[in-house]
Design a protein that fits this description.
The protein folds into 2 domains: 179 residues, 2-Layer Sandwich (Nucleotidyltransferase, domain 5); 55 residues, no CATH class. Helices cover 48% and strands 13% of the residues. The longest helix is centred in the middle third of the chain and has 23 residues. The mean pLDDT is 93. Keywords: Exonuclease, Hydrolase, Nuclease.
Length: 238
């Protein structure tokens, strides 16, 4: 079995212009948490999520200066290892800015969507899945290590479900998870805007213009919109 590294980051925000503040990872019984001073101020809306303030990091070194980078880079980039994250594309983007580019990754958000082909689950964020699936664990939400602990439990649930439903052994499931994680997810419904809660295929039949407009917005945003662009192009046959 390859080594699975469960990891999470806390950042100055949720866009491609944001930076690492905290990173946590866990592999078997080995765990690590590091706190760093980002190159920009932490905005209050970010602190409201993870409760890390500018005062808490004012005496910290940057990630590059901290001395932690070489060890984490070597560990994450080892070709025998697989990093696991929820909404992994964002975390991978953040650590790529620090020159960490893992070869193999699993995104539990994309796996959760894959295992819900009818789109019955309303939302796929980590904490929602934690309580929907009644994952019992003592972990603080939106804290990097707290999220890692939830992530590890969620991964085990998803792995067991896939092994059972697809009659695969553990190694086969890991390989399939990597493959699923490597391409965009097909989304099923809206969780925002005037069509909040509606199925995308239903909106296509009644308001195709909205999907056309939304696709243009997603393409122009330059953000982490790969899944939406893929989904809208799929429905619009583009």
């Amino acid at each position: 079995m390859p080594k699975l590294i469960f990891f999470d980051t806390e950042t100055t925000g949720n866009t491609e212009n944001d930076f690492l503040i905290q990173i946590a990872y866990k592999h078997d019984n080995e765990s690590f948490v590091g706190l760093y001073k980002p190159p920009t101020k932490i905005p209050p809306e970010a602190s409201a999520v993870h409760h890390i303030t500018n005062k808490m990091v004012e005496d910290k070194k940057s990630f590059k200066e901290s001395g932690d980078l070489p060890k984490i880079k070597k560990f994450f980039e080892d070709k025998k290892n697989i990093v696991v994250a929820h909404n992994a594309l964002f975390d991978l983007m953040i650590i790529k800015k620090e020159d960490i580019i893992p070869d193999n990754f699993i995104c539990t958000l994309r796996i959760a969507r894959y295992l819900d082909p009818e789109g019955k689950i309303e939302r796929y964020n980590l904490q929602y899945l934690r309580y929907l699936l009644e994952i019992e664990i003592d972990a603080t939400a939106h804290d990097a290590m707290g999220d890692v602990l939830v992530l590890e439990k969620l991964f085990e649930r998803l792995k067991k479900k896939m092994m059972k439903e697809e009659n695969l052994d553990e190694n086969e499931v890991i390989k399939k998870m990597i493959e699923i994680s490597s391409h965009p997810s097909l989304l099923h419904s809206f969780s925002f805007g005037k069509h909040n809660g509606k199925k995308i295929e239903d909106v296509l039949a009644t308001d195709r213009g909205y999907l056309e407009w939304l696709l243009t917005q997603k393409l122009e945003s330059g953000g982490m919109e790969e899944d939406w662009v893929y989904t809208l192009k799929h429905h619009l046959k583009k």
